[in-house]
C-alpha cells in the first residue's frame, strides 16, 4: 500500500499547514504590509493611521517635486517664501525692503514665510500622538547615520522640551520630524505645540528678514544677475537627478 505524501491536504475542517521550508511557507508566514520593517505601527492601522501615513508620503513627494526648482524660485522670493518658507527667500524680501528699492510688501512676505515654514509640522506631531516612537523608527530607517541622528534628536526633545522645538528652526542637522514626534509622545498638548510652532517660526523669519534688510542693495544685484542663468541651473539639476537615478538602477543587481 502506498504511503500518503507529505503534501497531502489535511482532512476537512483542518487548515492547510505547509511544511517548514516548503513552497507554501513564505506565503503562510508572510507579514501584513503594516508589519514590514520601517513601518511605524504596533498594531493594524486604522483610518487615522492611514491618513497620517499618506500625508507624510505626500510631503516627501512635495519636497522632491520642489527640489529642482529651488534654483529659479530664489529669483521670485515671495513665491519661494510661500511654497517653502525658504530662509534665503526671506533674506531677499528683507533686501528688497531696504533702500533704494523699498518694496512695501515685506510684512506680507513675513506672514507668508512664517505660515509656510510651519505649515507641515503638525503632521509629524500628529504622527507622534498616534505612533509614539514608531515614527522615529520609520525616519531612522536602516542607515546607521540616520539612526544616530534620530536618537540624538529624540534625546534632545525629551530632555529639553520647548528648547528642542526652538532648535528645529535653526540650520542644524537634526530631524525636526523626530523632535515633534517625541514631544507629542511625551504629552505636549496641541495648543502649546501650535502656539510655540508659529512663535518660533515668526521670530526666526524676522531675524532673517532683518539680515536681508541690513545687506540691502548688494543682495538684490546678485540675485538679478543670477536670474539670467537660473533656468540653466534648474535644467542641470534635473539632468543630474535623472542620470543619477538611471545610474543607480543599472548598478543594482538583477534578480534571476
TrEMBL record:
Keywords: Cell membrane, Membrane, Transmembrane, Transmembrane helix
Domain VTT: 91-213
Record flagged with keyword DNA-binding: no
Top-level lineage group: Bacteria
Region (Disordered), start-end ranges: 1-24
Pfam family of the protein (one): VTT_dom
An example Gene Ontology CC term for this record: plasma membrane
Start-end of Polar residues biased regions: 1-11
Main location: membrane
Family named by the database record: Belongs to the DedA family.
Protein name: Membrane protein DedA with SNARE-associated domain
Native species: Propioniferax innocua
Amino acid at each position: 500500500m502506498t504511503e500518503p505524501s507529505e503534501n497531502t491536504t489535511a482532512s476537512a475542517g483542518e487548515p492547510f499547514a505547509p511544511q517548514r521550508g516548503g513552497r507554501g511557507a513564505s506565503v503562510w508566514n508572510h507579514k501584513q504590509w503594516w508589519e514590514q520593517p520601517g513601518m511605524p505601527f504596533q498594531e493594524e492601522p486604522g483610518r487615522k493611521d492611514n491618513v497620517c501615513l499618506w500625508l507624510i508620503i505626500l510631503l516627501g513627494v512635495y519636497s522632491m517635486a520642489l527640489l529642482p526648482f529651488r534654483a529659479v524660485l530664489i529669483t521670485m522670493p515671495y513665491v519661494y517664501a510661500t511654497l517653502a518658507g525658504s530662509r534665503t527667500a526671506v533674506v531677499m524680501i528683507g533686501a528688497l525692503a531696504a533702500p533704494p528699492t523699498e518694496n512695501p510688501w515685506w510684512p506680507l512676505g513675513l506672514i507668508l514665510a512664517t505660515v509656510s515654514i510651519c505649515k507641515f509640522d503638525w503632521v509629524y506631531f500628529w504622527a507622534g500622538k498616534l505612533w509614539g516612537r514608531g515614527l522615529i523608527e520609520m525616519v531612522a530607517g536602516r542607515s546607521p547615520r540616520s539612526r544616530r541622528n534620530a536618537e540624538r534628536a529624540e534625546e534632545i526633545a525629551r530632555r529639553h522640551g520647548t528648547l528642542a522645538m526652538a532648535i528645529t528652526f535653526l540650520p542644524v542637522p537634526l530631524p525636526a520630524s523626530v523632535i515633534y514626534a517625541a514631544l507629542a509622545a511625551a504629552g505636549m498638548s496641541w495648543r502649546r505645540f501650535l502656539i510655540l510652532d508659529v512663535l518660533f517660526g515668526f521670530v526666526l523669519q524676522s531675524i532673517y528678514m532683518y539680515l536681508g534688510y541690513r545687506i540691502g542693495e548688494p543682495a538684490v544685484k546678485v540675485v538679478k544677475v543670477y536670474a539670467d542663468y537660473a533656468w540653466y541651473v534648474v535644467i542641470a539639476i534635473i539632468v543630474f537627478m535623472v542620470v543619477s537615478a538611471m545610474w543607480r538602477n543599472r548598478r543594482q543587481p538583477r534578480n534571476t
